[in-house]
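FIELD: query
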Amino acid sequence: MTREEFVDYYETKHSKLVGHFDGVVRYFRRYPEEGKDPAGSTGPGKVDFDVVMELWFESREAFEAAHARGGEEDEEFWREAAADERRLFDAASEGWQTKITIEVEHETDLSSSTLATTYERGVSACS
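FIELD: result
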């Protein structure tokens, strides 16, 4: 599957699976640009993933409830989702796996004078 086909399939078909979950308030997909690996972590222009996907839930409780659901309907959903992932990702390749993490987010207010003070202290501590 070409890169363009991958993104098209993900956006038009696979991404619709998120509708199964209650309490989702934001849904992001980020695709690495081909040939762009500024850190050189996996070799020039190569990364070891196809997409980074984020689901934001309205609360931790909503997240836990969405993942605790059971019953035949959910079993059918997970079978469908697994089959779709096998179509989309190269699950047969060595080392392939979906990695799932729960993140704690921190955001810096870049307009704050505190940032400038913190940055200045950081620079002076390094000099």
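FIELD: remark
The chain has one domain: 3-126.
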